[in-house]
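Work Package 3 (structural annotation) set out to generate three-dimensional models for the target panel prioritized at the project kickoff. During this period the team completed the workflow that converts sequence records into C-alpha cells, so that structures can be stored uniformly alongside our sequence database. As a representative example, we reproduce one entry of 241 residues exactly as it appears in the project archive.
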Amino acid sequence: MSLLSTPTVPTEEFNKKKLVKETEKMAAQIGDWQHKLYAEGKKSLLVILQGVDASGKDGTVKNVFKSCNPTGIDVYGFKKPTEEEFAHDFLWRVHKVAPQKGNIMIFNRSHYEDILIQRVHNWITEERVHYRMKAINAFEQLLEFDNNTKVLKFYLHISKEEQETRLQERIDDPEKRWKHNEGDWEERKHWDAYMKCYEYVFTESEIPWHIIPADKGSYRNYLIAKKVLQTLTEMNPVLQS
C-alpha cells in the first residue's frame, strides 16, 4: 500500500460539533463495556497507537477513553529502551506490560518502534528487520489466541504539512510548549523513510492495521472510538450474576 495515496483528511463533509457529541456518547459506552470487561476478568484488549510525532496519540487517549475506570485501564508510552531493556530481547519490555485479563492496555507507540526508528537510522540490518517482524506477528498471535487478548492497531495518519503546523504550535503556544522537543524536527527530516517503513509494517502484519485520517482531531477521535466500541461489543464481556 502507499501512504502517499491514502487520505489524511475526511473524505466526506462532517459537522465537527456533531462528531464531538457522538464521540462523547461512544466514550461513555466504552466506559460501560470496560466495566464489564474488568468485572468478567476473562478477556483483555490491547490498543496500539502509532504515528509520527504530533499525530495525536495523547489526544486520542484523552478523548476516547475518558469514561473508563482507571482501575481497569493502563497507558504505556514506549521511549528509548533502558540499559536493562537493551540487555534483553526487544520484546522483553513489551511482554511485561501486555494487558492482564479484564484490562484494557493502550500502547502509546509500541514494539513497532524497533523496526521503524531503528530501520530508518540503519541501526539494524534488513535481515534483522524481517526477523523481528516475524517475531512481532508471533507475539501478537500469542496474545490473541493463547490469552484472549484482542489486539487493535491504529496508525494515526497525518500529512507532513499538518505535522509542521502542530510542531510549530508547540513552540508558539505557551500551553503546548512543554511538548516541544527539538528531536521531533530532526526526525521529520526522515519523513519519506518513515513512510516507507510504515508501509512495510502494514503489508507484513498478520493482524491488520486501521489507517486513521488524523489531520482533523475530531474525525480521528470519532473513527477510533467507533472501532473500539464495535470491538468491545463483539467481545461481549458479561457481568457475573
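Residues 20 and 218 are 6 Å apart (CA to CA).
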